[in-house]
From TrEMBL:
Belongs to the HpcH/HpaI aldolase family. Keywords: Lyase, Metal-binding. It comes from Penicillium egyptiacum. GO terms for cellular component: cytoplasm. It holds the Pfam family HpcH_HpaI. Residues 19-245 form the HpcH/HpaI aldolase/citrate lyase domain. It comes from the Eukaryota. The keyword Lyase applies. The lineage of its organism: Eukaryota, Fungi, Dikarya, Ascomycota, Pezizomycotina. GO terms for molecular function: aldehyde-lyase activity; metal ion binding. This is HpcH/HpaI aldolase/citrate lyase domain-containing protein.
Length: 270
């Protein structure tokens, strides 16, 4: 399976892994995003309008273009993680972790014994890595070929970031800037981040790299994505389906009417 997980391969080679966020359900949406040239598509089951069935449709649609599906589970409960991985996700993003214990439990839920507690039985995940990947190969190689990420978005997680980064088996720390800003008392209320939040974002990057791990961040547009890629982040979200669709439609309307259209707004805006 080595080399069959696109996002992990890019990161393991020291490259920049760029991705897009899927909030709207539908395999056609998944394919549209996957064919746009990104390394990964995040299927958002936490804040997106994507349930378990829609997630199971999105994952194979994304892999059909050689792109890696990452699933953000609603919570880091083991059964939610199992559903994402059994669907064939190349990576899992766990929201709202707070402690080292939370992180260890997440990693254990993602890995087969003896490194973890994941059960084996789904007939689907091996096909998401390639036609020639057998069930036995998936069982023996998945532990080393999945991207396991936790979000640093609570004050408690931020205070424990060095210890969390050191957890064995964890691959990446991911910054959710909006919840992190809320957690440390500097919420994002406009188009710019408070200096204290910028410092926190730099701290997460430093902690990840110091521990030999990768760092990722959510960005709402290309300009912001370039800023944090230039800062040294390894995995960067560039856009969302909702934000890109809203922005594009508003721009086309503006051409016709010569009036400013409604721009995308909020954490998923552009």
């Amino acid at each position: 399976m080595q080399g069959l997980n696109r996002v992990k391969t890019v990161l393991d080679k020291g490259g920049l892994a760029l991705g897009v966020w899927q909030l709207l359900p539908g395999s056609n949406m998944s394919r549209t995003l996957a064919r746009a040239g990104y390394d990964w598509v995040l299927v958002d089951c936490e804040h997106g309008n994507i349930d378990d069935a829609a997630m199971h449709e999105a994952v194979p649609a994304i892999t059909s273009y050689g792109v890696s599906p990452i699933v953000r589970v609603p919570d880091f409960q083991s059964w939610m993680i199992k559903r994402a991985l059994d669907a064939g996700a190349h990576g899992v993003l766990a929201p709202l972790v707070r402690t080292v214990e939370d992180t260890k439990a997440f990693v254990e839920a993602c890995r087969f014994p003896p490194q973890g507690k994941r059960g084996f039985g789904s007939p689907f995940p091996m096909d998401r890595f390639g036609r020639d990947v057998s069930a036995t190969q998936y069982l023996t190689e998945a532990n080393a070929n999945l991207l396991l990420s936790v979000q640093i978005e609570t004050k408690e997680a931020f205070d424990n970031v060095d210890s969390i980064a050191a957890v064995e088996g964890l691959d990446l720390l991911f910054v959710g800037p909006f919840d992190l800003g809320n957690g440390i008392g500097h919420p994002v209320l406009g188009s710019t981040f408070a200096p204290e939040l910028e410092q926190a974002i730099e701290k997460v990057l430093s902690s990840a790299h110091k521990a030999g791990k990768k760092a990722g961040i959510y960005c709402g547009n290309g300009k912001q994505a370039k800023k944090y890629a230039d800062l040294g982040y390894d995995l960067v979200n560039v856009a969302t389906d909702v934000g890109a669709l809203t922005s594009s439609l508003a721009s086309e309307m503006e051409i016709v009417t010569q009036k400013a259209g409604r721009a995308a707004f909020g954490p998923y805006g552009s």
